[in-house]
Write a structure and sequence with these properties.
The protein is an alpha+beta fold and 390 residues long. 58% of the residues lie in helices and 15% in strands. The chain has helices spanning 2-26, 32-64, 66-129, 134-141, 145-221, 225-232, 236-246, and strands spanning 277-280, 295-298, 304-306, 311-319, 323-331, 334-344, 351-352, 357-361, 371-378, 381-383. Strands 1, 2, 3, 4, 5, 6, 7, 8, 9 and 10 form a ten-stranded antiparallel β-sheet that branches. The longest helix is centred in the middle third of the chain and has 77 residues, at 145-221.
């Protein structure tokens, strides 16, 4: 009852906060920044309360099964390292891109410098061919004053051109030195990031091995299929309860966003969250004797998981049997659920667009093979996603 009252309080709070959040997002007047700050504070408070409820749910799970608690701790540790590795991969890509750009600039600068050197060399050869003390000879002859003035003017122009070329050459040399120093610094940073990534990747593989050993140990201990289902099986009641709590929580999600089509209008044109063969179809009977509320897609560990449409993250946590689960509220009573992930890349309250990477696939929740568990719900009821996705 106490949890139920907390949930009711959260829903009521959202009913008050949601309009404020919507106004903070859409308002363009001078008070918008303050409204956005107030809305963000309230959203943070509500997010904390949702996390508290999730912790209470985990406490119930822990009391029910020591195996589930141990598995959750191991998979959360694994998820943290996997998230760090992904962040380092993104950093490596950005640093490599910067280094490539610097190398291109250096190539252009070196080509320009070579051309400037050749021009200066030609100019110096011309000056040498004209002979020494040419100006003095012209002044002493004084046969044709006009011709003498023209030649002296040419000599002054010639000297200015030499000086300008030398100045330009020196400037190019300075820029080239700076570019080479930037490349040296960028290369060192890239190597440091690569070393850190290799260290974390080794830790990740170790954690994956330990998790696999843990699952094997649990399987050996829970030889009976019924015992394994009781300990690690899907807690569908928990998912139904959470979905019920989250329905219409984010009332600031309009049916249509800007000029985008509504979620229902996109039926049949939504993209799958990742490419993969369906190994468990919607409605298929699993080992527990229950029909599946979603589909299981086979895919290698670490495959990016994409949001199927615009929405807001309503839940991001570990659930028994589903592992690391992320739920996106698309408005108008539609939710998409993504389970068995290795790591989650979004948090409660985050907005996502269609195609955004929100997680990476894995085998969390006690799964023996990697994949992605995916559900689509309409007003709390599980529906076959195959009629919606292509």
């Amino acid at each position: 009852m106490r949890i139920a009252r907390q949930v009711l309080a959260i829903v009521v709070c959202f009913a008050v906060v949601a309009p404020v959040l919507a106004r903070a997002q859409e308002s363009a007047d001078t008070s918008a920044p303050k409204q956005e700050q107030d809305a963000q504070k309230k959203l943070n408070t509500i997010r904390s309360e949702i996390e508290t409820l999730a912790a209470q749910q985990r406490a119930v799970t822990d009391r029910r099964s020591d195996a589930a608690r141990t598995l959750r701790e191991k998979e959360l540790a694994l998820a943290a390292i996997a998230k760090d590795v992904r962040a380092l991969d993104e950093k490596l890509a950005a640093q490599q891109s910067r280094l490539d750009e610097l190398e291109k600039r250096r190539t252009v600068r070196e080509a320009r410098l070579a051309a400037q050197r050749e021009t200066l060399a030609n100019l110096l050869r011309s000056a040498y061919a004209m002979g020494r003390d040419e100006e003095l000879k012209l002044l002493l002859q004084q046969d044709d004053a006009a011709a003498t003035a023209r030649v002296l003017a040419y000599h002054r122009y010639f000297q200015r051109a030499q000086i300008e070329l030398i100045d330009t050459l020196l400037d190019s040399l300075k820029q080239l030195v700076e570019l080479r120093e930037s490349i040296r610094t960028a290369t060192a940073q890239l190597q440091a990031t690569r070393d850190a990534r290799n260290t974390d990747a080794a830790r990740l593989e170790t954690q994956r091995g330990e998790r696999a050993a843990l699952v094997g140990s649990i399987d050996a201990h829970l030889k009976d299929s019924r015992a394994r289902i009781d300990a690690l099986g899907k807690d569908e009641a928990a998912v139904t309860q959470i979905v019920g709590r989250l329905r219409n929580v984010f009332a600031d999600i309009p049916e249509r966003i800007a000029n985008q089509e509504s979620f229902t209008a996109l039926r049949g044109r939504l993209a799958w969250p990742l490419p993969g063969k369906i190994v468990t179809a919607f409605g298929a009977v699993d080992e527990s004797g229950r029909s599946s509320s979603g589909v299981l897609l086979a895919t290698p560990t670490g495959t990016p998981v994409h949001a199927i449409s615009h929405g807001r993250v309503a839940f991001a946590d570990w659930l028994r049997g589903y592992g690391l689960m992320l739920i996106v509220d698309h408005g108008d009573g539609y939710l998409s659920l993504y389970g068995c992930n290795e790591t989650l890349l979004k948090d409660v309250g985050d907005w996502v667009n269609a195609g955004d990477t929100i997680a990476t696939s894995g085998a969390s929740g006690g799964q023996k093979v990697p994949g992605l568990y995916f559900e689509l719900r309409a007003k709390g009821r599980a529906i076959d996603p195959r009629g919606w996705l292509h």
